[in-house]
């Protein structure tokens, strides 16, 4: 991709003399770090909602609704929201800062949200918190056998809950 840009720059009379300087590489690394923060923020936010809700479709609906229109509606009614809400902070990171939120504040606050979500996520997966479809079958085995005449049979080994 860089080679294509180099070729196209020469056809449009754009100077490429500063493309490989230390300043340019530092700027590129800084941009890359911000993109990684932005992607990680949305990934951890989505993962946290998914772990707490434990179902893909509702988790997706909740996360998109919250980070999309709900945060923006709250921001219109309460302007400090843009300094605290994860979706608005991640938008500011992606935009390189806004008029009201600097990129530094957005990056630090978004990083704090990422840490908070990462710490909260394991709480939804504690050993005492069972999923409705989890009957405690870990470690149990089912042995399938073929009798040679095309008939399959199965046997259970281990302790099985009565409701199964």
Mean pLDDT, as a whole number?
Answer: 82
Number of domains: 1
Instruction: Output the strand order for the largest sheet.
Output: 1-2
Helix content: 55-70%
Spatial shape? flat
Q: Quickly give the structural class.
A: mainly alpha
Distance between the termini: 56 Å
Helix tally equals: 5
What's the story with the biggest beta sheet? 2 strands, antiparallel
- The proportion of strand residues reads 5-15%
Number of strands: 2
Which regions contain 5 or more consecutive residues with pLDDT less than 50?
133-137
Instruction: Give helix and strand order, one letter per element, not per position.
Output: HHHHHEE
Radius of gyration computed on alpha carbons: 25 Å
Condensed summary:
With 164 residues, the protein is mainly α. 56% of the residues lie in helices and 7% in strands.
